[in-house]
Amino acid sequence: MSKIKTYCRIKPSPHLYEEYETSGDTLQLRVPESLKDCLSLCQGQARVSYGFHFDHIFKPQASQSDVFDVVAKEIIEGFLTGHNGTIFAYGQTGTGKTYTIEGSARQYSERGLESRALSMIYGALQSRKDEDIAIHISYMEIYQEIGYDLLNPAAKNSQSLVTVFPKLTVLEGPGGAGIIRNLSQHLAASEDVAHFLLLQGQANRHVAATTVHDRSSRSHAVFTIYLSARKQDSDVSVRSKLHLVDLAGSERASKTGIEGHQLSEAKSINLSLHHLETVIIALQSETAPSGQLQCSSAGTTRSFSEVSLRSYASAADGMRRNKHIPYRNSQLTLVLRDSLGGNCMTAMIATIALQFENLGETISTCRFASRVACIANTVKRNEELDERIIIRRLRKRVADLETEVSCLRINQDELGSTVDEMSIKLTDEDKIYCGHIINDYLRGLIADPVTEGITSPYKFRECLKILKKMVNDGYGRVTNNASRSVTNVSSGAIFRKQGRDTDILWVHADDHKPQRTQAWTDETITRPIRRSQSFNNKPKIEGTSDPEILPDSERSQSQRYKSPFEHKRDREIKTLNAKVEKMQRDRMEKEQQLIEVKYI
Ligand SMILES: Nc1ncnc2c1ncn2[C@@H]1O[C@H](COP(=O)(O)OP(=O)(O)OP(=O)(O)O)[C@@H](O)[C@H]1O
Fold it and tell me: Which among 98, 106, 223 is the best mutation to test ligand 1's pocket, defined by most ligand atoms within 8 Å of the CB?
């Protein structure tokens, strides 16, 4: 929550009302008890003292630069970082609203807030090289409750002597925000362009000579600067707007003696300001509990106390959602909706002309300011994701995801099948199949067990087991007894191919020549290996003559019995061992890869 700041600016005059003083930020006024009945200040008449508190009071000698520094700098800094800002001048006609907001053409030093704001904004943007920044400008006026675009490009190109400005429609948009239809926004790429637009709009305003002011603004003017900024590496855009509002001045027709067209203009201005005041009162009354903003008549002193907004801020926020604020009653309040009770850093400059004849209007202006000071706005940075960048990023993300998904699908297929395979325990059929593969491999019937389906680590392990057993059992050992040749085969090595009941094994007969021998049956195959104690109590596999297995003492002798067939088989086993080793290594590598895919 941030309260609306209020400032008072006293117009310089050689005939200032004497009974006023400023102590700090409080304006003290001592005025006759009944201003209404008193047309001149009478000696000895009872006085009432008013005290109005402001955030700052600009004395008559305050310069344009002083006003800018105190009122505008903070708001413009906020605007540059994405916070909305509004500065509006309110006061009696001829008190210096236009002078404050637009400035005077008399001297460069008398330029107003609009021109100074542009200079500060463009100056600050110079250093923001890493951002894409766009400044747009619009300028509208509300004359007799109708909005006009002061920067209409069609009007600029018109050959007609009478410039026709298109009418604008101010509508209530989503969330109640005012939407101005048809208002042109002009890109101002440089400060010069912005100043040109400003001058063009100022020149197009409705002004008229009145009895109090020869160039009185007969309209409310809203000069708006829009900022849109985005850091080059970011997809968040910052958008903010700065309203600089020069309100038309209130005037008492009875006092100024205007009539005809000017009278109807004045009525319209007063009505519009009345609607503004109604909104302010509604906002102020919801913010401050009744009785806080009071006109206490204790003694002769009347004071408008500044309400501590902080204590009411949260309560006001809740109430505002329920309470009706009559923004819709006028175009001006719709346009300023955000500035009054919305998301905006707002400042009001109450301009007063401290002459005796203006005391009534001065008090009225100060009272209005006191009410405005009670309003708390909710200020937040206007950040939004840039849709074009979002779309671009989403497209890239979709493309990345598609690639990732297709890669994952491949991995999943591979992983899934391998993991499935690994997770399934080998069935008896698998084991038999492994036996056949190893047998065929050893016999040279197949070149590579992998291509025959030994792909899972479990099957590899089974094959290795079979091989080890075969080696230990002296696979293909020459035996003297055909019946004992059965024991050459380990119980685990089942040399039977699927679909076949029997298999033929080469064995050696007594003449040491290899020969095909009997058909093997399940019964013989599954017989357990028998070991017998031999010399030196060393285990000896029965019937073996394999030098690899025999004790050293027997080796030389048994070597004599090795046939070419045995040698060939030895070589095969050696090769097979090497292959198994390689297969083991491959399997470990593969497992490692799978673990990485699955868990890392
Ligand atoms: N602080 C000031 N210093 C010097 N001159 C000022 C000051 N304030 C106002 N004036 C002068 O007083 C005259 C009226 O001021 P201005 O036009 O700003 O009044 P206004 O409040 O905008 O009136 P209206 O509501 O009728 O448009 C102008 O000539 C302006 O130069």
Answer: 98
